[in-house]
Amino acid sequence: MASSLSFIPSIPSTAIAPRGRRGHCFFGALSPVLPFFLLSQSSRPLPNFRPAAPVSALLAEQETFPKPTTTPPPSLPFRVGHGFDLHRLEPGYPLIIGGIKIPHDRGCEAHSDGDVLLHCVVDAILGALGLPDIGQIFPDNDPKWKGAASSVFIKEAVRLMHESGYELGNLDATLILQKPKLSPHKETIRANLCKLLGADPSAVNLKAKTHEKVDSLGENRSIAAHTVVLLMRK
């Protein structure tokens, strides 16, 4: 390749500074100063840039895009909802689970009766319907709900479910508490829950677990519940 440099000066040997015995340069000697030469680069063709389209053309192009429809989406054949609730356990309160009073030395501290299972089921149904949670529909600062039975909340959730055109497909709930043991009460709780929901017993499942003595749930200071519901279009 041909170089654009027509002449590169040679460096005279006398211009190189002499070196000492141990490889150090003598600072008294002058070193040559070499000029920098820019090498010419071969000309390269510029890439083909697409000229910017005028604004009027862009607007006309956007008008050809399909516009979003304003019609509501069709009703879903089914909906899934999840609910969660937790309450502190304190002496002097009754322990009510699924509308059933359970013998224990403490109960749920809450604005209403503190039924953690029914509150959880209500939230699951409301969530499946895409509605606000139980705290917004039944606020705990409303004196009307002070000490109210949670069966009232369940009946309202079921009414909203039927009003929206759905019915319960199935429900699966899990209670988490260290004490008391719920094995002797599980079937009674489940039967009452089926009655409140107007559901067949085969569609309602209830489980209970301890928390292996970990944190407030495992230390008998709180109780929690999870619920998943499937709602079917009527």
TrEMBL record:
Q: Which GO terms describe its biological process?
A: terpenoid biosynthetic process
Q: Which Pfam families match?
A: YgbB
Protein's organism: Dendrobium chrysotoxum
User: Which InterPro entries does the entry link to?
Assistant: MECDP_synthase, MECDP_synthase_CS, MECDP_synthase_sf
Q: What is this enzyme's EC?
A: 4.6.1.12
Q: How does it assemble?
A: Homotrimer.
State the UniProt keywords alphabetically: Chloroplast, Isoprene biosynthesis, Lyase, Metal-binding, Plastid, Transit peptide
A single GO molecular-function term is: metal ion binding
Record's protein name: 2-C-methyl-D-erythritol 2,4-cyclodiphosphate synthase
Which cofactor does the UniProt annotation name? a divalent metal cation
Q: Which HAMAP family match?
A: IspF
**What's any one GO cellular component for it?**
chloroplast
Provide the 2-C-methyl-D-erythritol 2,4-cyclodiphosphate synthase domain boundaries. Answer: 78-231
| NCBIfam families named among the record's database cross-references | ispF (TIGR00151)
Family membership, please give it. Answer: Belongs to the IspF family.
Q: In which pathway does it act?
A: Isoprenoid biosynthesis; isopentenyl diphosphate biosynthesis via DXP pathway; isopentenyl diphosphate from 1-deoxy-D-xylulose 5-phosphate: step 4/6
Q: Which PROSITE patterns match?
A: ISPF (PS01350)
| Record localization | Plastid, Chloroplast
Q: What class of enzyme is it?
A: lyase
**Catalysed reaction, written as an equation:** 4-CDP-2-C-methyl-D-erythritol 2-phosphate = 2-C-methyl-D-erythritol 2,4-cyclic diphosphate + CMP
For this protein's source organism, the top of the classification is:
Eukaryota, Viridiplantae, Streptophyta, Embryophyta, Tracheophyta
